[in-house]
User: Fold MFS-type drug efflux transporter P55 from Vreelandella gomseomensis.
Amino acid sequence: MSNAHLPREAGRSQGSVLVLGSSLTIMGSVMVAPIIPKLIAEFAASEPRVEVLAPLAITGPALAIAIFAPLAGWLADSVGRKLILIFATLLYALLGAAPALLNDLQSIVIARFLFGCSEAMVMTCCTALIADYWQGERRLRYINAQVISIALVGALFFVIGGALGEQSWRTPFYLYLLPLLLVIPMMKVLWEPLARSEQDETPDRQRIDGVALVVGYALILGGMVLSFVVPVQTPRLMVQLGIASSTLIGMATGAGLLASLLGALAWPLIRKTIGIKCTNALLLALMSSGLLLLINAGSLTGIFIAVVIHGVGAGLLVPNALTPVMNALNKRQNGRGMGGFTSCLYLGQFVSPLCVAFLVSMTGMLTHAIAMLALIGFGSAVIWLLYAFFAKQSDTPPLTTTADK
Assistant:
């Protein structure tokens, strides 16, 4: 397709494909998280390191994404977003379903790690294409739609994964074949924007705001450490309360993911009302409050309340961190910039349980470790509030976006 025939701005069909493609990434972890106890029981006799490897089968993809996403961004800029996205979606489906056919835990962990590499390419390319296809408020709407879709799909498949896991730990993995349905729409409605972008780029837009990138990357990394405490640690806390059903575990954590939908829906109004900086303070305070309520919950109802409050904050996190990062980039660097953002996002997910484990070794209790993370979150919220108070309300390079003007 020649440059002359490229659409000047994408429409709903492209947006739907990219939003659905983005939602694949949440399926990578939440859909199979409820089956960790069954995975441990299955391989306890044959694998002495089962207590380490079983959780790694769930969180391992996050490490793979964190490592591979910068390379995925470079490939997206060099080879082309559309081609890499289609190839990655095929790999996602095949590698995602592979553990259902494997019979040893080490092979499952390796398959999940490779699966994470395909996730990195999918997320990076989808987000880069959103940045390429739209500008201004339309871009913000699709960023928000991306987060809403991830929340909906995450909540749905967390419950589905838990229910299917009641019968067999293998069954949820077959759901990863569903993204094959997206391949043909990707081929038909998406186009490669790079050739046109190189012509349309003005000297002003060739500059990159490095400070905004660092701030956005740090925010998403730290925020995901707090965010991922719920899906990883809630099952352990529920078992301590005597709740061992994978269905109930899936429903509880799925409620948090569904609550993140509320946060994402509220984000445009909150952002316009209090601005990016104060929204950062709010989302960190909500997540920290949810964690404190979670460790003090004495019943299933208390757990549901805690994960919902936490989830609302988590729903504000990604769009509020991503918007300044997108505005700091130019089109030629969108792939690499989004690769860095994706890397920090999933690095935060991966190190979250490691941070909890380290704090447990210091404090001796899981609840104390989570409480320390919550206090760090509250401290960060205060810093953002102080920054919002003292910063000029005009253009502030690290954080001001076109949406705030």
Q: What stands out?
A: Confidence is low (pLDDT under 50) at residues 1-7, 393-405. Residues 12-392 form a domain with the Growth Hormone; Chain: A; fold (CATH 1.20.1250.20). The chain has one domain: 12-392.
